[in-house]
Design goal:
Elements lengths: L1 H21 L5 E5 L4 E4 L2 E9 L8 E9 L4 E9 L5 E8 L3 E13 L2 E6 L3 E4 L2 E5 L3 E6 L5 E4 L2 E3 L1 H6 L2 E3 L2 E4 L5 E6 L11 E3 L6 E3 L7 E11 L8 E11 L1
Parallel strand pairs: 2-11, 13-20
Antiparallel strand pairs: 1-3, 3-6, 4-5, 4-7, 7-8, 7-11, 9-10, 12-15, 14-18, 16-19, 17-18, 19-20
C-alpha cells in the first residue's frame, strides 16, 4: 500500500510538472530589429519590444538578454512597463562586431520574489545555449566607408557625330566590398537614357555615336558597395551633369 501511495504521488507530481511545462505565456515580442538582420556597430543599437502580458497590482519588467553566437551570456537590460501592448525601447551596447542572439523574458513581482514569463524556450548545458526558439539573431558590422564625389564633364557634339565618347564624372573611394554602379531612369534626361551605357565598376558614362543637341544633360546614378564580413553594405545616389558643346 505504501509503494502504491508513493507511485501515485510520483505520477501526480509528474502530471503537475507536465501541466506547468505546457503553460506558455508570451509576454513580449521583438518589434525591431528584424530577425537575421545586419545592424551598424560597434556601439549602441536600439531594440524595441512589445509587451504581451501585464499583471495588475504588480511590478512588471522585461529583460533583454544578449548572447554571443556560441551561447555565452554577455549582458542584459531591464525595462519596467505599465500596461499590455506597451512598446519598450532599449539601447544595447555591442562592443565588437560579430553574431549575437537577443532573448527577452518578462516577469512580475510576487511575495516570494519574481515569476518569469518567457517569449520562447531555452535549453541550457553548463550555461551554454543548445537550442533556442523565438529569438532574434543579429549581426553587428562596421559602417561602410563608401565615398562618392562627382564633377561636371563636357563633350563635343562634333566628336559624338564621328564616334562614341566616354567621360567619368564619378570618383569612388573607400568602398568596402564589391562596387556596382547603375543608371536610374527617373532623374536622368529622357532623351539620352537609351543612348548611354554605364561602366558597372567605375561609373564611367559612354555616349553612343550620334547627333546630340547642345545643352546640359543629367544622369542619375546609384553606387553600391556590397560590404563584407566586417562592413555593412551601402548605397549612394548621385546626379551628374554632362554638357554637350
Amino acid at each position: 500500500m505504501t509503494k502504491l501511495r508513493k507511485t501515485i504521488s510520483i505520477v501526480l507530481a509528474v502530471i503537475m510538472i507536465m501541466s506547468v511545462a505546457q503553460i506558455s505565456v508570451f509576454a513580449a515580442e521583438f518589434v525591431s530589429p528584424a530577425n537575421n538582420t545586419v545592424v551598424t556597430g560597434p556601439g549602441n543599437v536600439k531594440v524595441k519590444i512589445k509587451t504581451q502580458d501585464f499583471v495588475e497590482g504588480k511590478e512588471n519588467y522585461c529583460e533583454i538578454k544578449i548572447y554571443s553566437g556560441d551561447g555565452t551570456k554577455l549582458g542584459y537590460k531591464d525595462l519596467k512597463y505599465t500596461k499590455k501592448g506597451q512598446i519598450l525601447t532599449a539601447k544595447l551596447n555591442f562592443r565588437d562586431i560579430g553574431s549575437y542572439v537577443l532573448y527577452c523574458i518578462c516577469y512580475h513581482s510576487t511575495e516570494n520574489g519574481f515569476v518569469e514569463y518567457s517569449t520562447g524556450k531555452w535549453y541550457y548545458l553548463n550555461g551554454k545555449i543548445l537550442e533556442a526558439q523565438d529569438v532574434i539573431r543579429i549581426t553587428v558590422k562596421r559602417a561602410n566607408t563608401l565615398s562618392v564625389k562627382t564633377a561636371a564633364k563636357s563633350l563635343k557634339a562634333s566628336a559624338l557625330k564621328k564616334a562614341q565618347q566616354t567621360v567619368n564624372p564619378v570618383s569612388i573611394k573607400k568602398a568596402r566590398g564589391k562596387v556596382t554602379v547603375k543608371k536610374i531612369k527617373k532623374g536622368t534626361t529622357s532623351k539620352i537614357y537609351k543612348k548611354i551605357t554605364i561602366a558597372k565598376k567605375t561609373g564611367a558614362i559612354t555616349f553612343k555615336k550620334g547627333t546630340y543637341k547642345r545643352g546640359t544633360y543629367k544622369v542619375k546614378l546609384k553606387v553600391t558597395a556590397a560590404g563584407n564580413d566586417e562592413y555593412t553594405s551601402k548605397s549612394k545616389t548621385v546626379t551628374v551633369k554632362i554638357k554637350v558643346k
